[in-house]
Amino acid sequence: MRKSPWILITCVIVGGLFGGLLGEILLAVFPPGVIQNAFTQAVHPGLTPPVTVDLWLLKVTLGFTLKMNLLTFIGILLGVFVYKQI
User: Fold this and answer.
1) 76 falls in which pLDDT band (50, 70, 90)?
2) Among 27, 60, 67, 23, which residue's Cα sits nearest to residue 44?
3) How far apart are CA 20 and CA 7, in angstroms?
4) Interval 5-49: pLDDT, tens
């Protein structure tokens, strides 16, 4: 049976969201220290500042930012693992 790439994308996004949620919970629950820093230290790749195209009649602004921490990355890997198990 052929797997749809949309299922992979869904599993990766859900895994990343779940990992990000766990990272935010750890940030709120654990006291500041080594464990909290290791799991919740985030990297923010993206377009900063956003790209703006001014076409006189229409002005378009495009930009995005991802908040990636260790638990988000682990969640993405678990999403890929779940996809392979389906």
Assistant:
1) very high
2) 67
3) 20
4) 999 999 999 999 999 998 888 888 878 888 778 877 888 888 888
| Count of all residues that appear for the chain in the document | 86
Rounded to whole angstroms, how far apart are CA atoms 71 and 40? 7
Helix, strand, coil share (%) of the chain residues, nearest 5: 55, 15, 30
Closest CA to 31 of 19, 44, 20, 40: 40
Greatest alpha-carbon pair distance for the chain in Å reads 52
Contacts for 32-37: CB closer than 8 Å, 24+ residues apart: none
User: CA 3: distance to chain centroid?
Assistant: 23
Q: Give the model's pLDDT for residue 37.
A: 80
C-alpha closest to that of 68 among 50, 48, 44 = 44
